[in-house]
Amino acid sequence: MNEDSIWSWETAWDVLPQLLRGLVVTIEATVVGMVIASILGLFIALAMRTPTRWVRGPLRLVVDFIRMTPLLVQLVFAWLLLVDIPPLVIGFSVLGVHYATYMSEVYRAGIEAVPKGQWEAAIALNLPRARTWRAVVLPQAIRNTLPGLGNYAVSMFKETPFLFAITVVEMYQAAQQYGALNFSYIEPLTLVGLLFLLVSYPTSLLVRKMETRLA
Amino acid sequence: MSDDLQALIDSLPDLGGAVLVTLQMTLGGAVLAMLVALVLGFGSRTRSLWVRGPSRVVIEFFRGTSLVVQIFWLFYVLPVFGFKMEALAVAIVALGLNYGAYAAEVVRGSVESVPTGQWEAATALNLGPFHKIRRVIFPQAWALMIPQLANLLIQLLKGSALAFYITLHDLYWWIDELQRDTRDTFFSYGCGLVLYFVIAYVLTWGMNWLEERAKRRLGRGTRPRLRDVFGLKPGVPTEVVRVKGGVA
């Protein structure tokens, strides 16, 4: 190792393959987490529309509770409680559930943005309730939610490093392990930051483009 | 269960300090974030490319790299270059810069949402650039940005749990200690999460109050109903802030 300079390209090259393997886990977590979040979020948003307050009240409390407490603590909590389940699965699910509470707001806004006339037209056509939702309201609502979904995907991508706390070897943990083994944190940590930027910036540009096209 | 309660009572003296550290990080981070947001937010609106360019680069940089990476980078890597900061300072700086970049977008968006007529009227009244913003534009933008800033504040509080990993004795540290003492994960983490929730709730009330005040000063507000003050507003999800006319 070169003693004079702080940054060593050799170390950087050495650590890169491990980081890229971590990046794959990071992206996997984002995709799986986002799938869970978008499905569960929709169900939460629909359940929030039930007329009885006995469903809405408790659900609201649970959703607010999950949304307003740290993801990190939730992850470790679930990990310590559910010892038999592999950490990666816990990571996916907790990320998914946490973001489902965010997504439910996006869906709510999307559903509310569907014009009232659409509902009235569905009633006038005598469509059954299920069909109204499936064929009239949801397709329009989901189109409204796409930018929100994209933004949260980018945001979740940047929160996956929290999984290091439950021993999942994603990108940050890979850097951490390498650093601990070779006593050099500079290159791994800096590279991790740059890799995050490299993936999240173009993605957020894409999302922004989608926003302007759908708006 | 009685053992749990005993351990909880024993750990109460530490709780005050732990909550204080979490609050220091949250409020310190929020103040720094607001300063960063104002500088970058207005900076990214100026006509001069020499100001706008760097502002945008800084915003995108801190939004694009993860908070986790930033906090550990400041803690582990920066000292190598000769800047050694205390752990608390590292946490505040990392939280402030990260959420400041997000808030800068909120500031920019809100300022842009103030109708052009207001700018023109202020110019017609021959107000100087500083006065124009201080007296006319900012108060209106402020009322618009508070709900989104409230969301960011909660995010910041949640992000502060990371500080445990850079040796700070914050609320998460306290939870961890309680878990060690009781060996009862459900009890200790349950208590801890409730405490985080309570702090978040109080912060939300504070922001609701600020919003009501900002609206009243513009002559738009009504006396808030009790439900508005104590309820949690659904709020615009922070990441969807930039969507104009789309969602919501």
Automatic annotation (TrEMBL), chain A:
Subcellular location: Cell membrane
Keywords annotated in UniProt: Amino-acid transport, Cell membrane, Membrane, Transmembrane, Transmembrane helix, Transport
Pfam families linked to this entry: BPD_transp_1
Entry's transmembrane regions: 20-48, 69-95, 189-207
ABC transmembrane type-1 domain residues: 23-207
Domain of life the protein comes from: Bacteria
SUPFAM superfamilies the record matches: MetI-like
Membrane topology recorded in Swiss-Prot or TrEMBL: Multi-pass membrane protein
Predominant localisation class: membrane
Entry similarity comment: Belongs to the binding-protein-dependent transport system permease family.
Name assigned to this protein: Ectoine/hydroxyectoine ABC transporter permease subunit EhuD
Gene: ehuD
UniProtKB/TrEMBL annotation, chain B:
UniProt domain ABC transmembrane type-1: residue ranges: 19-204
Family: Belongs to the binding-protein-dependent transport system permease family.
SUPFAM superfamilies (alphabetical): MetI-like
Domain of life, source organism: Bacteria
Bilayer disposition of the protein: Multi-pass membrane protein
Localization per record: Cell membrane
Keyword terms: Amino-acid transport, Cell membrane, Membrane, Transmembrane, Transmembrane helix, Transport
Family matches, as Gene3D superfamilies: MetI-like
NCBIfam families in alphabetical order: ectoine_ehuC, HEQRo_perm_3TM
Organism: Isoptericola peretonis
Main location: membrane
InterPro entries for the chain: AA_ABC_transptr_permease_3TM, ArtM/GltK/GlnP/TcyL/YhdX-like, Ectoine_EhuC, MetI-like, MetI-like_sf
CDD domains: TM_PBP2
Protein name: Ectoine/hydroxyectoine ABC transporter permease subunit EhuC
Transmembrane region(s): 15-40, 141-166, 186-210
UniProt keyword Transmembrane helix present: yes
